[in-house]
Write a structure and sequence with these properties.
This protein has 463 residues and is of the alpha/beta class. It folds into two domains: 134 residues, Aspartate Aminotransferase, domain 1; 278 residues, Type I PLP-dependent aspartate aminotransferase-like (Major domain) (Aspartate Aminotransferase, domain 2, 3-Layer(aba) Sandwich), CATH 3.40.640. It is built from 16 helices and 16 strands. It has a seven-stranded mixed β-sheet, sandwiched between helices. The chain has a four-stranded mixed β-sheet with strand order 1-2-3-15. Helix 4 packs across helix 11, helix 12 runs parallel beside helix 16 and helix 15 crosses helix 16. The longest helix has 20 residues. It is globular and about 65 Å long. The N and C termini lie close together (9 Å). Bound molecules: pyridoxal-5'-phosphate (PLP). Pyridoxal-5'-phosphate (PLP) binds next to helix 5.
Amino acid sequence: MNTLTDSVSPDIQSDLSARSTRAVWHPCTQMKCLDKSPPIAIESGSGPWLTDTSGRRYFDACSSWWVNLFGHANPFINEALRKQLDTLEHTLLAGCTHAPAVELAERLSDLTGNHLGHAFYASDGASAVEIALKMSFHYWRNAGKAEKRSFVCLRQSYHGESIGALSVTDVEIFRDAYAPLLMRTHRVMSPDTRLARVGERADDVVSRALQDVEELFEHQSEGIAAIIVEPMIQCATGMAMYPASYLTELRRLCDRYSVHLIADEIAVGFGRTGKFFAFEHAISEVAAENWPDFMCLSKGLTGGYLPLSVVLVRGGIYDGFLDDDVGRGFLHSHSYTGNPLACRAALATLDLFERDNVLAENSVRAQWLGSALEPVARASWARHTRQLGMVWACDVADCVAGERFAERLMIAARAHEVLLRPIGNTVYLMPPYIFDEPMAAWLGERVGAAIDEALAGGIGHAT
Ligand SMILES: *Cc1c(COP(=O)(O)O)cnc(C)c1O
């Protein structure tokens, strides 16, 4: 099945893929598998499309690992970056500051109604998680409670791959080899709606999950610094969704037992779930006190352009570090902390949210997406179809999926011009916020066809 549309030689494609396999150690990849399924050599991007070196295009249905919001080569962000490039590319942020870092910190704080602020910058999601964990422990230490030093995470959680972040991650395949290096952490039940037993509703799962937290806090909160959660969707373990009531009640438990609440919004922030921050699903106007103590942001922060992350905190946390003693300050740093180009890309991204009324438009786009995927949702093998904002997912029944379903679907989807990265038996779409109704319909058809082929096993080979 060869749908090459122009005359660029496929040799360039295979050459670059082969060189990459020799020279580049690819992330999250058993390199031995690349012989059979080599990486696609991407040459350019435009809007939702990525084009490879042989001229084939792919709809970026996973937003290049959940980072891209407004398409590739977005003219508005490009222009902002060009200007910044001619002004200041980088400077250190210790002893110096610059407009992009300051403006971004102010605007992010405004977006939380100024409940959170004091932006601490880093370069990727895992670093933001490390920062939040260290800050939480250091806060309690400064407060004379150094015994509050352990962390709680949810089952099926994912918070990144560095040693600290991996310690609060519950994905066996990522943790297994490094288990001896990791901090001991507490794990509590996930509120994943799919865990409902016969006769249970989503709220019943939430109740059980909260009970698990409360039992732990009751006995051990004196030794616990913080609990970390992915608000509304545990993305990396298959887009597990749960009701906002879990977050509201968790906030109460954290207050009652003096445990910090860290919201890891790295994947779900920036409009992904329909609210600007996913935690806002749990915050009504009258319950402003529901904001978490720490919020980690990255991925969509720069519109998918440059590596940048940030941790926002409550004022009380920040105050706990102010002292004449230098050692009571947060002496953490990264070389590229607050890089001006990355901050500028983030500012341009926030401008687009304002200019185009993105949250309102996305609620319409989300409906297009859901309707386009209805035939998939109705298939006999589809389980637990779910959608929150611009995340759509369903599971393929185990008995139907067979061996290595994710890989088969990924390859089948490529032939249909769609870039998908299924997680186990979970098919998900997390597209950039720039498609119209016909494009959603096209996507739904192509994804449906690719799944049918993957399940029929009739996809030939990867090209
Ligand atoms: C991707 C992700 C991270 C890690 O971010 P990196 O930039 O890959 O280090 C942490 N938490 C969540 C919820 C994520 O989705």
